[in-house]
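Design request, tokens follow.
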């Protein structure tokens, strides 16, 4: 990175593609450019083999079997396929959907759309910001809400704004006790936490390459293939790719890059978690030293219920957007970048009990693989200076 480029601390929005991922992808654009659906020649065979190899790598990394991975264009599509695929499948059971107020829009919107038509939707609340477990769902409340009419429970594994990690196992038990399925949006968790779909007890899991140092525009949905077999109504029909679950020509370079990115994350998972925790903890300590009235949003970082790379802070009386303008040398976010077209304060922070004005006075800082301690020190100084200038002025 050139010295004049801003320090990138927006790794929840997207991540830089790892150069090793780019290297793995390149031949699939220029040399081996066949369509994985072309069965009659070597170009097609090579592409098909690459897609199947990638499927195996990705399945292996999350404790799944290759046939349980459906490639999509990203987590938004995976979430839509999971939710609408269950709700709209023939012979579905029940019309009750259960989720959480702090989910990503790519989960909430398809749920709300169904709730305006054929389904009933219950949204669970989360622990308030005064709690050390801020943002965590209460499994007891979930168990009381899930009923014999529930067909799907959708709870994200790790939150994209406050990094809270949800306890999925008790939610899986409550869902399965009534014959409902559990979907998780694990977009911020895969590649960042050890993941085993069996241990989590999930039936459907969405994730995306660009959050784990892979390319944009490719993702996957894990669809349980046994005990029970989960059947989905497809969203996209046509050529019958992905065993009819998602038609459309495979994005071969993207899928190859996705698998390489997952492989790299798996190889260095614990080392990287330690690196991110060290940087994140220093960032927090440095900001607190500069801005003593700064408060954390979300769970206490000392607990295991928070992503190592995540920080979200509330700086009383200073608007997050204004800090971003005053500290352009740091690329950060004042809410979820995915919903930055929406001027409303973050629904996640509001769900923790922050007022609209308080929620506007926040910064989300996402530390990633390519950040260094020197960058963290510069970011502390830049944000601290900006806040002091704004408070004086
Ligand atoms: C939790 C979560 N779910 C879903 C998405 C959407 O992912 P994609 O950009 O792959 O569609 C995002 C990304 O912004 C996210 O953070």
């Amino acid at each position: 990175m050139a010295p004049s480029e801003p320090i990138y601390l927006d790794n929840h929005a997207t991540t830089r593609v790892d150069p090793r991922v780019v290297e793995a992808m390149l031949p699939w654009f220029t040399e081996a450019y066949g369509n994985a659906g072309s069965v009659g020649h070597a170009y097609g065979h090579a592409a098909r083999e690459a897609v199947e190899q990638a499927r195996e790598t990705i399945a292996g990394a999350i404790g799944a079997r290759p046939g349980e991975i459906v490639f999509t264009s990203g987590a938004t599509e995976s979430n839509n396929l999971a939710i609408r695929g269950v709700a709209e499948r023939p012979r579905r059971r029940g019309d009750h959907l259960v989720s959480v107020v702090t989910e990503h829009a790519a989960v909430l919107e398809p749920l709300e759309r169904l709730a305006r038509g054929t389904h009933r939707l219950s949204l669970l609340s989360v622990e308030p910001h005064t709690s050390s477990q801020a943002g965590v769902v209460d499994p007891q409340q979930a168990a009381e809400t899930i009923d014999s009419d529930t067909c799907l429970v959708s709870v994200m594994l790790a939150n994209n704004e406050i990094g809270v990690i949800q306890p999925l196992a008790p939610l899986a038990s409550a869902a399965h006790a009534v014959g409902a399925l559990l979907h998780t949006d694990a977009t911020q968790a895969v590649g960042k936490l050890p993941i085993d779909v069996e241990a989590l007890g999930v039936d459907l899991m969405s994730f995306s390459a660009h959050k784990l140092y892979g390319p944009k525009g490719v993702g996957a949905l894990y669809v349980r293939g046994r005990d029970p077999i989960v059947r989905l109504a497809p969203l996209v029909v046509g050529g019958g790719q992905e065993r009819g679950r998602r038609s459309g020509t495979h994005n071969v370079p993207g899928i190859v890059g996705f698998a390489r990115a997952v492989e790299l994350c798996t190889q260095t998972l614990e080392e990287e978690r330690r690196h991110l925790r060290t940087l994140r903890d220093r960032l927090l300590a440095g900001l607190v030293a500069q801005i003593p009235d700064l408060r954390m949003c979300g769970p206490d970082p000392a607990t295991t219920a928070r992503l190592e790379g995540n920080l979200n802070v509330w700086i009383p009386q200073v608007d997050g957007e204004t800090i971003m303008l005053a500290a352009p040398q740091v690329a950060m976010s004042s809410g979820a970048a995915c919903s930055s077209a929406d001027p409303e304060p973050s629904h996640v922070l509001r769900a923790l009990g922050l007022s609209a004005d308080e929620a506007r006075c926040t910064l989300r800082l996402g530390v990633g693989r390519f950040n260094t301690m020197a960058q963290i020190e510069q970011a502390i100084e830049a944000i601290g200076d900006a806040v002091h200038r704004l408070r004086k002025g």
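Comment from the thread starter after seeing the answer: thanks! The domain at 7-16+269-392 is CATH 3.90.1150.10 (Aspartate Aminotransferase, domain 1).
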